[in-house]
Design brief:
alpha/beta; seven-stranded parallel β-sheet; Rossmann fold; three-stranded mixed β-sheet; about 350 residues; 13 helices
C-alpha cells in the first residue's frame, strides 16, 4: 500500500494519478472538509480517455489525515509500505509564516516520526530548490550547496530547509528515505493558484517582465522522478529536479507566444518592483484580496539563480521534458477549459 500526503493538491494529484496508472493501491490523505475539485480536474485532464481509466479509482482510498493531527496519521499510516510526502504550504505572505512553520516543519516531523514507528519501507520527501539556500544572485546551485543565511531566503525557503532537516534526522534514525528538490513546478491545475496563476495573468495581458532567472520543471517530470527513485535502491540522497533554467522574460514571452498574445515589453526593474509590491499591498488591505506581488516575490524576481540537475540525469538516466513543450501543453489545456 502506498500513501500520499497532500494528495488533493497540485503535485500530490499528479503523483496519485501516476501511481494509479502503474496499477498501485493508493491511500490518499486529505484534510477534513478540504476540496477535491483540483484533484478531479487534474485526474480528468491526465486521463482524458475516461472510459479506459475510470476503474482506476477503485484502487484509490481517500482518508482524512492531517499532518498536524498525530492520531489521524497513526491510523492512516498503518499497513503502509511507501510514503510520498507532498503536503506543504507554499506562500510568500508574511501572515502565513506561522502556518508554514506548523505544516511544513512540524507536519514533516510528524510524518517521518510516525513512518519510523510504523515501519514504513521507503519515504519520499518533496523539498524544494528553495531549501538549498540562495546566498547571492548568479550562483549555480547543486545538491552539495550549503545553506547560508541570506535575505534572499524567503520564509517559505526557511521552513522547507527546516523540514528537510527533519527528514535527514529521521534518515539517521533508520528511515529509508529519498529527497527531491524541484524547481518552480509547471502544469495544468487550478488557474487561480501557484504557478498556474501566471498563465492566467499572461492570458489576460501581462505587459511587465523582469530579468531574474529561476529553475522550472514539468509537474509530470517531478512525479515520474519521485516514483523512479522510490522504485530503485536509492536512499539517503537528494536530487534537484529542474528541467531548465529560464530568465523570467523568456518564460513570459514563451507563454505569450503560445497563447498568441502580445509579449511583455516593459522591464520591471528593482525600483518599479518595489513600488509594485507596495501598491499591491495597499490594494490588498483596502479590498481584502491576497496580493499578487509581495516583498519576497519582488526581490526574487530580480535575482538570478541556476540549478544543476546533472545528478539525477546521471544516476537514473532521467530525461526532462523541454520547457517549450511543457508551456505549449499547459496553454493548450488552459484554452480547452475556457471553451
Amino acid at each position: 500500500m502506498i500513501a500520499v500526503s497532500g494528495a488533493n493538491g497540485f503535485l500530490g494529484s499528479y503523483v496519485v494519478c501516476m501511481l494509479l496508472e502503474k496499477g498501485n493501491q493508493v491511500v490518499a490523505f486529505k484534510r477534513d472538509r478540504s476540496s477535491l475539485v483540483e484533484f478531479e480536474n487534474i485526474f480528468s485532464t491526465y486521463f482524458s480517455d475516461k472510459e479506459s481509466h475510470k476503474n482506476l479509482k477503485n484502487n484509490l482510498t481517500w482518508v482524512v489525515a492531517d499532518v498536524l493531527d498525530i492520531p489521524s496519521l497513526e491510523a492512516a499510516l498503518t499497513n503502509v509500505d511507501e510514503v510520498y510526502h507532498c503536503a506543504a504550504i507554499v506562500s510568500f505572505l508574511q501572515k502565513h509564516r506561522t502556518k508554514m512553520i506548523d505544516v511544513n516543519v512540524e507536519g514533516t516531523k510528524n510524518m517521518v516520526n510516525i513512518s519510523l514507528q510504523k515501519g514504513v519501507k521507503k519515504f519520499c520527501h518533496v523539498s524544494s530548490i528553495a531549501a538549498l539556500g540562495r546566498e547571492k544572485s548568479g550562483d549555480e546551485i547543486t545538491e552539495k550547496s550549503k545553506w547560508g543565511e541570506s535575505k534572499n531566503n524567503s520564509n517559505y525557503a526557511i521552513t522547507k530547509y527546516k523540514a528537510e532537516m527533519e527528514v535527514w534526522r529521521a534518515i539517521e534514525e533508520g528511515l529509508n528515505a529519498v529527497i527531491v528538490n524541484p524547481g518552480v513546478i509547471l502544469g495544468t491545475g487550478d488557474w487561480n493558484k501557484g504557478s498556474c496563476k501566471l498563465f492566467k495573468l499572461v492570458w489576460n495581458g501581462m505587459p511587465f517582465y523582469t530579468l531574474g532567472a529561476n529553475g522550472y520543471v514539468d509537474v509530470k517530470d517531478v512525479s515520474k522522478a519521485m516514483i523512479e527513485l522510490m522504485e530503485k535502491n536509492i536512499s539517503r540522497e537528494r536530487f534537484i529536479l529542474v528541467g531548465e533554467n529560464l530568465q523570467m522574460k523568456k518564460y513570459l514571452e514563451d507563454v505569450a507566444v503560445s497563447f498568441g498574445k502580445k509579449k511583455p515589453t516593459i522591464e520591471a526593474g528593482k525600483k518599479l518592483s518595489q513600488i509594485a509590491w507596495r501598491v499591491d499591498a495597499a490594494k490588498s488591505f483596502l479590498f481584502g484580496k491576497e496580493p499578487s506581488i509581495t516583498r519576497e516575490t519582488a526581490r526574487a524576481s530580480q535575482n538570478t539563480f541556476y540549478y544543476n540537475s546533472n545528478k539525477i540525469s546521471q544516476k537514473i538516466n532521467f530525461k526532462f521534458t523541454p520547457m517549450n513543450k511543457t508551456i505549449d501543453d499547459i496553454c493548450a489545456n488552459f484554452l480547452k477549459q475556457q471553451l
